[in-house]
Write a structure and sequence with these properties.
Aminopeptidase; 3-stranded antiparallel beta sheet; 10 helices; BCP1_family; Protein BCP1
Length: 315
């Protein structure tokens, strides 16, 4: 299987500078710089042309970036899990299953901006690289939960299933229209039972899909904190222009850090949120938003439907 998937679905050639800029390397980047006076006159968005390529997960290149993204998602609990063996397992599962992709902008040797990968829970339940993470997730679940039956089979030995755990890890400023393709490619690869050489592939028939991530909670009075992470109805975002009026308070509620996960939640069988175990106690002096972990449970058909809805919303 070739490393560069070089998908033809890369419809996004230009994105706002605020969405595309990062410390990572980029290739073929051009930018139309504008000074503050131009911004104040009503044109406050610069455009950057970026080439995004999809690659197979690469154990020789991607480990450091995956560890960083795992720590980001673990948030306050990042010291509870040894992310080094977990990153190795995620990459080795990508090779074994022939599934999972990363998005890069400077060739295969560069760091990924984001990735979607899958781990076969039944196959790796007792793997020392995975078991501590599985124990961590189980400890967040109530005794009666549909997720408990999948993550801890001892709670329901008669429950026949083949669950998969999806790791959707990415930088927050990865352009949203790219994300549905990561999921679409993953599902296509797991549905392919014959490799490029015509040999039969031993791909598990997963019955349940669990997506791990994190979320945040707003009280409704936050403003000026750079928190423009969730979209409002109609696809527009609340924003603050230079020289304009003060930013409106953000809507109160709980939200996933990745906006595309809202599409997953709409069709999910079950969504579970849990507080981070080592998060400091919050009071009136606490800075930033309250974060929490989250797990979404979907069937194969519902996951495919959510991906279709994501892609339609991004067109």
């Amino acid at each position: 299987m070739p490393s560069n998937k070089n998908t033809t679905d890369r419809k996004l050639e230009a994105v706002p500078a605020a969405a595309a800029s990062s410390n990572n390397k980029r290739k073929n980047v051009t930018r139309d710089d504008e000074d503050d006076s131009a911004s104040d006159s009503g044109s406050d968005v610069s455009m950057i042309n970026v080439d995004f390529d999809f690659y197979n997960l690469n154990p020789d290149v991607d480990q450091i970036a995956i560890k960083r993204l795992l720590r980001q998602t673990l948030s306050h609990d990042d010291e509870l899990i040894d992310v080094h063996p977990l990153a190795d397992l995620i990459l080795s599962e990508g090779v074994r299953l022939g599934a999972g992709s990363s998005i890069k902008t400077d060739g295969e040797e560069s760091d990924p901006w984001g990735l979607v990968a899958v781990v076969d829970i039944a196959q790796n339940r007792d793997n020392p690289a995975f078991k501590p993470f599985l124990t961590y997730l189980n400890s967040s679940l109530p005794s009666i939960s549909p997720l408990k039956m999948l993550l801890d089979p001892s709670s329901s030995p008669a429950h026949a299933s083949r669950p998969a755990l999806i790791f959707s890890l990415r930088m927050l400023n990865l352009p949203l229209p790219l994300v549905p393709h990561l999921y679409r490619i993953l599902l296509s690869e797991l549905d392919t039972t014959v490799d490029a050489g015509g040999a039969k592939r031993d791909v598990p028939s997963f019955t349940d899909w669990i997506i791990w991530g994190r979320g945040y909670r707003l009280e409704g009075n936050e403003e000026g904190m750079g928190l423009d992470l969730h979209e409002v109805e109609g696809g527009s975002k609340k924003s603050k222009k230079k020289g304009g009026n003060a930013a409106l308070p953000l809507a109160a509620g709980t939200f996933p850090y990745h906006p595309e996960e809202e599409f997953l939640d709409r069709v999910a069988t079950h969504v579970h949120t849990y507080p981070f175990k080592t998060a400091p106690k919050r009071d009136e002096e606490s800075f930033g938003v309250e974060q929490f972990g989250r797990l979404s449970l979907l069937t194969r058909a519902k996951l495919a439907k959510a991906v279709e809805d994501m892609q339609a919303a991004c067109q």
